[in-house]
Fold this protein.
Amino acid sequence: MKLNEILKAGHIVPAIWPVDFDTAANPGDFVSMKDYAYGLVVIQIGVTTGTAVVTMDKAALVAGGTTTLAFTKYYRTGMKLPITGASGDFTIGETVTGTTSAEEGYVAIDGGGYLYLHTVGSTGWTDGETVTGGTSGVTCTVDGSATEEDVLLEATATSDTFTIPAVSNRTYAIPIDADSLGDGYTAMQLDVASASAGCIGSAFYALFQGRYNKYPMPSAIYD
């Protein structure tokens, strides 16, 4: 696809403009999926000292509604940590901790010579330090520096929700299939609850596989 054709097959719509999520509840705008097959809800967090709960809603029209939109998977910022000398296999989802840096991360992938981690803190792991699995008890040694700090790693939502942790400069994404809205529903909405403390954030919807290929692509803020 040519570069100038990208936005003739998809559409980007603001959901929540940059704001302090601690001020109040943060319902995003409703967008219509009737002209698009897939959507990606992207949340970007800047400086934060608080946590915030994320849910999704669906409605028949962009005028709104209060029906929960079910989702089980989302993605969050991660990184790749090179390791050596692992005493066994780490448990997916467990927290690992560095003994020198006190860094922490949730294991998404154990690749043998590396771990892909959902980052809990920064990426200041120390070369040569011991890393210990909080559930498995497995240990290893950091072998170099963390890389690929922009990767998004899959995580599991619990009861159609997840909580943004108090970790600054992170991205979260929720993939939505228009068919998953169900009969009679065409609109979706992101909802970020009031944060527990200061939390600067914003969000947008990226809509893909338009049912029409044209310029400009159909609006998603009207039915």
